[in-house]
């Protein structure tokens, strides 16, 4: 799930990575990414307003100014289109985690990375396309469509693969190592419980209010988890 401007244990929001930090994608890849994001944006707008079942691939293609065949090259199903933000959030969290110092407490680092991504998603731009508004739309569609809800479980697993790889790199081990699996299992539980506690944030019209409530709910759930289950130190660093 997605705390106030001065949340407990949180820090300043992450800025989008500087363009000079690493070689960026070429023009072809940028255009492909722009097309993918446009298809997701259009699909979420349509499905959120008229319903998932009532929305067709042809409608999405027309609104996105692409052909149905183009959509089929990017996505295997209509469900996969509207669930695109899950993958984007997972990759963004993994990238944010890699930029943080290793402290020996990967759960705390995951919280830091997550809150940074949420803050950045509220002010999403073309350079930082992970959008909190789209995440709200997606969750409303997930709740209203059984087929999207079922498919979202697979996407959540895929999202966690990227995060597990980042955690494993920081611990100097492999994604299937027990410490990584324990950290990811705890992380998934915290996320699931905070989603249950803050489900109504997806109905807020004001995105900033929704994000603030979501951050508060997430951090409260996280803090309660640590209070009940322990501090989560891994021993990877002093």
From TrEMBL:
Residues 56-75 bind DNA. SUPFAM superfamilies: Homeodomain-like. Residues 1-26 have a biased composition (Low complexity). Residues 33-93 form the HTH tetR-type domain. It comes from Nocardia tenerifensis. GO terms for molecular function: DNA-binding transcription factor activity; transcription cis-regulatory region binding. It holds the Pfam family TetR_C_14. Keywords: DNA-binding, Transcription, Transcription regulation. Gene3D superfamilies: Tetracycline Repressor, domain 2. InterPro entries: DNA-bd_HTH_TetR-type_CS, Homeodomain-like_sf, HTH-type_TetR-like_transc_reg, HTH_TetR, MftR_C. Residues 1-32 are annotated as: Disordered. This is TetR family transcriptional regulator.
